[in-house]
Specification:
This protein is an alpha+beta fold. It contains 24 helices and 27 strands. 43% of the residues lie in helices and 18% in strands.
Length: 741
């Protein structure tokens, strides 16, 4: 355990000061700035206290250390209520953090945004009760520790850069700093967005401490809250104090980041520092019971500390409140005697109230109808009671049609039906807790599928529930496009790396072949001299090499080397955009040129033969021209045609494999299409078709790079567009658009 003893200034004799110990829940950082401020600015000394601040020892829980007398005061979180409800004598002094800083951070792609998506992920968190908010959030969303691959320990800075860890339990005041500094993408899963809003850092002590030293407790609380007020008003000064006098391991930049975030958790401009809401603590206790963490709740009277009286008290306030209520009731009863003669006025008042209720009803109906989301109310039998116009538009029907006994389940895609109906049934069950928000596929009246996000909640005082739905279809498409673009950019890096690695040995091969040619040539004097020296002529050596086929082999090596060099040059062009070599070309002629070459091609292994494939040339006459690298566009068209030939010959029930080559022109673009009557693609294959190394061909037949490289050539090198239209059983059509000259 690392301990730091700091004494207040020597304005009072140290012998007169009351020595007390404060046990922190972690190491020295801005999280405890208020207590450092109270110590360094003399607030504790003014109260007659000599305070020792002790860092966390990870082997021990601060609550246990206070209860067993190792420390007088401690810092914890909402966990202290769990100890109180379990029968331990712990007392809350002040709720410093109005909201918990505990969150989950997702840092591996694809990023996770909801608690339901934690299943089967590698999650680093402590299973001890310190991370209680996160465990409650998981349980409320149907995820247990058994559903994740738990790494049970506290996180270290190195863990945030470990690609094998998907999710990390973290403090919003601390860990995101590391990821922001390194520009690493991440997402945050907040418990309060899932209905779990616990208190954060709390100051506490034991009941025996209050009973033995009531004045000490009162003084300590008063000085500590004063210190927090000072720390929030002078954050830069406290950063210097923490760095210089308390030996924090964090940089000043990191401490300033922590200070800015902590202010949003304490909310000093909205509530009094240290404020505790008994009702909110009762709700936290009810959540503990609901999750099975305790058998039953109990009265919280002895849990709260009253600084005005210096002792634990809430019963007196309760008794006073009861007396006040009783007195109020008596006054009302007496007053009712005198209102009998004012019956007419009562009727008028009731009419006025009814008018207000009608206005309120219109007001809330207006909110229901005009909210930005599609909103619907559903009963326990899944029947739609009410819906707004946004929901009707999403469904593709009228409000009247939907409210005419339509079921919520009528709008669920078949593949989602089982999951969604299980959620709906569990929502009205007492022993199940379905997620309150999730994504699913929404079935419109015309059969169209839309991607939506829904938030569902039970209406208080009723068994009905209300669902708010947001259409995420366009967002999903945009995300897929961004992911696809990111993958395409990676091809450029791959090409550049491969090209540079291949260039060096390739240059050596070509140079060696040139030297062999030169050193066996009869026309070189040095060759003639060496041949005569060994008793033969250069012509005889040349004849031998030709007779044995060595010259032919050298020609093959030289030809293959030049082909490889051209491929490397093309790959480098993918990453080094260069307008040198750009020429004006006609797509009709490019199609014809590649077809003159490719129609003689056949491959039994790849299952196609162009001699038995019908080629339809649907060209637009007087087609404009494009400015392009001819060899690259030829490569794209050649790849599309060969893929189409493979697809049309892939299944046996197509009588005549047919490929259509089509060109069109508008004001801005020239369009080239390659369409086949093959088997088509599934939505999953279509989504991944431009992904590097993805292929549906058999091993050894395709590499999965053809379409990804083609996509790069069209979109990056030629500023065009590349699209695909396909359907199972109806073939595939690839469309490229290139700017017109």
């Amino acid at each position: 355990m690392s301990t730091l003893l700091c004494c207040a200034p020597n304005t009072v004799s140290a012998k007169k000061l009351d020595e007390v110990t404060l046990q922190l829940k972690w190491f020295h950082q801005f999280q405890f700035a208020g207590y450092y401020a109270a110590l360094e600015k003399g607030f504790y000394e003014e109260e007659g206290l000599d305070v020792k601040i002790v860092e966390r020892d990870l082997r021990h829980n601060p609550i246990d250390q206070v209860l067993n007398g190792e420390a007088d005061f401690g810092i914890s979180n909402s966990e202290i209520l769990l100890h109180y409800l379990s029968g331990e004598d712990v007392v809350l002094l002040a709720s410093v953090f109005q909201h918990s800083p505990l969150v989950f951070i997702s840092k591996t792609q694809p990023l996770v945004h909801s608690a339901q998506d934690l299943k089967d992920k590698n999650v680093l968190m402590s299973s001890a009760s310190q991370d209680i908010e996160l465990k409650v959030m998981m349980e409320r969303n149907g995820v247990s520790l058994n559903d994740v691959k738990l790494i049970d320990r506290f996180a270290t800075p190195e863990d945030y850069f470990d690609p094998s860890i998907d999710i990390i339990a973290a403090y919003i005041t601390n860990q995101p700093y590391y990821l922001k500094k390194e520009n690493i993408p991440y997402s945050i899963i907040y418990p309060y967005t899932h209905g779990v809003d616990f208190y954060g850092d709390t100051l506490f002590t034991s009941r025996s401490q209050i009973q033995k030293y009531p004045e000490r407790v009162s003084k300590f609380v008063r000085a500590s809250l004063k210190g927090w007020q000072y720390a929030l008003e002078h954050p830069d000064e406290l950063v210097d104090i923490i760095s210089e006098k308390f030996g924090s391991l964090k940089t000043e930049e990191h401490l300033k980041y922590e200070a800015d975030t902590i202010r949003t958790l304490i909310l000093p401009n909205l509530v009094r520092i240290g404020h505790s809401n008994p009702v909110r603590w009762e709700q936290i206790g009810a959540e503990f019971k609901k999750q099975g963490m305790i058998d039953q709740t109990k009265d919280l009277s002895d849990f709260f500390y009253n600084p005005a009286e210096g002792k634990v008290t809430i019963r007196e306030e309760t008794a006073f409140l009861a007396a006040e209520i009783f007195a109020t009731i008596m006054i009302v009863l007496l007053a009712s005697i005198f209102v009998a003669g004012k019956f007419k006025q009562e009727i008028n008042n009731r009419q006025e109230i009814e008018e207000k209720l009608k206005k309120n009803e219109k007001y809330y109906r207006s909110l229901f109808d005009n909210t930005g989301a599609a909103t619907v109310m559903i009963d326990q039998e899944h029947t739609i009671i009410k819906c707004n116009e946004n929901f009707a538009q999403l469904c593709g029907a009228t409000v009247e049609e939907i409210e005419d006994k339509r079921k919520w389940t009528d709008f669920i895609a078949p593949e989602e039906y089982e999951r969604m109906t299980s959620y709906a049934s569990a929502r009205f069950s007492t022993n199940q807790s379905p997620p309150k928000s999730y994504d699913f596929k929404f079935l419109r009246a015309n059969g169209e599928i839309r991607n939506v996000h829904v938030d569902v909640g039970i209406i208080e005082g009723s068994t009905d529930c209300v669902a708010s739905i947001i259409d995420m279809t366009e967002k999903v498409k945009t995300q897929e496009l961004l992911i696809q673009t990111e993958k395409m950019v990676s091809v450029g890096g791959l090409a550049a790396g491969m090209a540079h690695e291949i260039n060096n040995p390739l240059a050596g091969i070509l140079q060696a072949v040139q030297n062999i040619y030169r050193r066996t040539s009869p026309g070189v004097p040095a060759n003639t001299a060496v041949a005569e020296k060994i008793g033969c002529s250069c012509e005889q050596i040349q004849s031998y090499l030709e007779e044995r086929g060595i010259i032919r082999m050298l020609d093959g090596i030289h030809s293959s080397g030049e082909r490889a060099a051209n491929i490397v040059h093309t790959m480098l062009n993918f990453t080094r955009r260069n307008d040198n070599g750009m020429t004006v070309c006609n797509l009709n002629k490019l199609f014809d040129d590649i077809m003159n070459i490719i129609t003689c091609d056949y491959d039994l292994k790849k299952k196609y033969d162009f001699k038995h494939t019908k080629i339809i040339r649907d060209y637009q006459e007087n087609l404009g021209e494009i400015n392009c690298l001819r060899i690259e566009i030829e490569q794209v068209l050649l790849n599309l045609v060969k893929n189409a030939a493979y697809a049309t010959n892939e299944i046996s029930d197509i009588r005549t494999p047919t490929i259509t080559l089509r060109t069109r022109m508008d004001d801005k673009f020239i369009t080239a299409e390659v369409e086949d009557n093959g088997p088509g693609m599934s939505p999953e294959v279509k989504r991944r078709v431009f992904e590097p190394f993805f292929t549906t061909k058999s091993p050894g037949v395709g590499t999965g790079l053809g379409l990804s490289v083609s996509y790069f050539i069209i979109t990056q090198n030629h500023k065009g567009t590349f699209d695909i239209k396909t359907e199972i059983g109806k073939g595939t059509k690839f469309t490229i658009k290139l700017p017109i000259v």
